Amino acid sequence: MTQPFRTFLSALVLGFAILSVAGCASTDTSQAPGEYMDDSVITGKVKAAIFNEPDLKVLQISVETFRGDVQLSGFVDSQDAADQAVRVSETVAGVKSVRNDLQIR
C-alpha cells in the first residue's frame, strides 16, 4: 500500500469511529442506550412499589421515566391516592423528580 492510501484509509476509519461514538451520545430529547436501560429499571421499580401499596390500583396508573424524572398519569379514586402514589414513587432509588398528572375520578 502506498502512503497516501494508508493515510486516507486511516482517516476514513477514524471518521467512522467518531461518528459511531457520536451516534450513541444522548441529546436533550433522546437517550443513550445506557440511560434508556436505567430509566426502564426505574419505571419497573416504581410500578412495583405502587403495586405493593394495597390502597393503589396499579392498573389505573401509568409510569414513564426520562432521565430519572418520573411521570405518573392515569386515574385514581382520591387526592390521597394521588399523593400516596407520588410519595411511593419518590422513595424509589434513582428517581430525581415525580410529575403528578394523575386524574381523580
Brief characterization of the structure:
By secondary structure, the chain is α+β, with helices and mostly antiparallel strands.
Write structural notes for this entry.
The chain is an alpha+beta fold. The protein has a single domain (29-104), classed as Histidine-containing Protein, Chain: A (2-Layer Sandwich), CATH 3.30.1340. The chain has helices at residues 3-24, 33-51, 79-90, and strands at 61-66, 69-76, 97-104. The chain has a 3-stranded mixed β-sheet with strand order 1-2-3. The longest helix is centred in the first third of the chain and has 22 residues, at 3-24. The chain is rod-shaped, with a radius of gyration of 22 Å.
Calculate the mean pLDDT score and round it.
80
Residue ranges: pLDDT <50 for 5 or more in a row? none
Here the CATH topology equals Histidine-containing Protein, Chain: A
CATH architecture: 2-Layer Sandwich
Shape: rod-shaped
Helix fraction, binned, reads: 40-55%
CATH class: Alpha Beta
Domains counted in the coordinates: how many? Answer: 1
Largest sheet: 3 strands, mixed
> Looking at the chains present, what oligomeric state does this protein adopt?
single chain
Structural class: alpha+beta
Helix and strand run: HHEEHE
Instruction: Tell me the fraction of residues in β-strands, as a range.
Output: 15-25%
Layout of SSEs?
Layout: H1 3-24, H2 33-51, E1 61-66, E2 69-76, H3 79-90, E3 97-104
Parallel strand pairs: 2-3
Antiparallel strand pairs: 1-2
